[in-house]
Write a structure and sequence with these properties.
Elements (H helix, E strand, L loop, with lengths): L7 E5 L2 E11 L2 E6 L8 E7 L3 E9 L3 H13 L4 E5 L3 E13 L7 E10 L8 H27 L7 H22 L6 H16 L1 H5 L2 H17 L5 H9 L15 H30 L6 H21 L3 H22 L5 E4 L7 H9 L5 H8 L13 E4 L4
Antiparallel strand pairs: 1-2, 1-6, 2-5, 3-4, 5-8, 6-7, 7-8, 9-10
Helix pairs in contact: 2-6, 2-8, 2-10, 3-4, 3-6, 3-8, 4-6, 6-7, 6-8, 7-8, 8-9, 8-10, 9-10, 11-12
Length: 399
């Protein structure tokens, strides 16, 4: 058996290589205390020491330069990465030092000597919770500013009856849509019933409410808030409840250009903006609590929320409202970008032949416990038969 036959495959991040052996420094952190007139010291155990590894990696073959360059990129990528090793198993590590050598005596081969330390979590508070809190605060500020602007500009008093009737129709439509969406929510029956009763009471008094802009604004914000936050505690479900109102209503053009018709159109625009803005603010709050599973999911949610805020910003004539929405939009970008930056990307991979989901998980992740993740993400009909050559969505740490 040649030395090449003894090589075992390993992977760091997305780069594959071979190893023959490795060195590891293990043990405990010990502080030795020596005392006067005592012959024996006291060894104070301060916990397990940092595991330091030296991996001797080899890439070889006719296209070894591609594998060499991939490993170089993996080593030079900032932050910790996932190491899958035939002897060490799976570890999260940080590269401390790396040396690479090539020789004409060993054509088609490059050798790497990589010094690694296990990567732990910081004991201090990371930035992301602060950014999430800032995003929530900015979203609440935007909702409050929307309500303040609405109170100033929505007016039906002293106008013809059809102006008030149109506002009542739009506000009633928003409340009715909230009730309809709540019927699809499972659980939290007491909260749903209570909110339904409150909304039905508001609908019976809808014409009086539109004559009082403060009541109308409070109704929209309160019922939107209760509908999203009280009906579900799961952030993804909360976002889904808010999502249904990101494109609420329509802005019909003024067909007859009279002062009353222009007032009617302004009132409708204010109501639509209030509902959409309240939904965007609640969506931002919900997104701050989501633990994203991939970079792609984070980007998708971020872009959806940005589009929701942009839609309201483009319609508002109020500089203060615009600035509050822009601040909330920027806070969402900072928060989700920070939390999603280091997450795995979703890529497409096809098994070479029909396999079980368990085999696919083991092959891709070296972790059979991720079988259910693969099945759920790809809606596999039967986990014992994952069709060969069928494209699957997998996280990039499996590529």
């Amino acid at each position: 058996m040649s030395w090449r036959d003894r090589l075992r495959e390993a992977r760091f991040r997305e780069a594959r290589f071979f190893v023959e052996d490795h060195d590891a420094t293990l043990g405990r952190r010990v502080q030795v205390h020596e005392f006067p007139m005592r012959d024996r010291p006291w060894a104070e155990d301060l916990g397990r020491r940092t595991r330091e590894l030296r991996v001797e990696a080899i890439v070889l073959g006719d296209d070894y330069m591609l594998a060499r360059d991939a490993l170089v990129r993996a080593v030079e990528t900032p932050g910790p990465g996932r190491l899958v090793h035939p002897y060490l198993g799976e570890m999260r590590v940080t590269v401390v030092d790396c040396r690479v050598s090539e020789s004409t005596r060993e054509g088609g081969m490059a050798r790497f000597s990589i010094d690694l330390v296990e990567a732990g979590d910081a004991d201090f508070t990371p930035v992301s919770p602060a950014l999430s809190a800032a995003s929530i605060a900015a979203a609440d500020g935007a909702a409050a500013q929307l309500a303040a602007g609405f109170k100033l500009r929505h007016a039906v008093a002293g106008r013809p009856d059809f102006v008030a009737a149109r506002s009542a129709s739009v506000l009633g439509g928003a409340l009715q849509a909230m009730q309809t969406a709540m019927r699809q929510v499972r659980g939290a029956a007491d909260q749903v019933a209570r909110l339904n009763r409150d909304i039905e009471a508001a609908q019976r008094d809808i014409l009086s409410i539109v004559y009082e802009p403060a009541r109308a604004a409070n109704a929209v914000l309160t019922y939107m808030r209760q509908r999203v936050r009280n009906i579900s505690v799961a952030p993804r479900e909360q976002l889904a409840l808010a999502r249904g109102f990101f494109r609420f209503g329509s802005l019909s053009p003024v067909t007859v250009d009279t002062p009353s018709r222009r007032a009617e159109a302004r009132n409708v625009a204010e109501l639509v903006a209030l509902v959409r803005g309240a939904a965007a603010a609640e969506g931002a709050r919900a997104a701050a609590g989501i633990d994203f599973v991939s970079y792609d999911e984070a980007v998708s949610v971020r872009d959806e929320l940005l589009a929701a805020f942009d839609g309201v910003m483009l319609e508002t004539p109020d500089d203060a409202v615009y600035d509050a929405l822009r601040a909330a939009r920027a806070a969402v970008v900072r928060d989700i970008n920070a939390r999603g930056a280091d997450l795995a990307r979703v890529v497409v991979w096809a098994p070479p032949s029909t396999m079980t989901a368990l085999q696919v998980a083991q092959r891709l992740y070296a972790d059979a416990s991720r079988e259910q993740e693969l099945v759920a993400r790809n809606r596999v009909r039967h986990p014992l038969f994952v069709a060969g050559a069928r494209a699957l969505e997998v996280l990039s740490d499996a590529a």
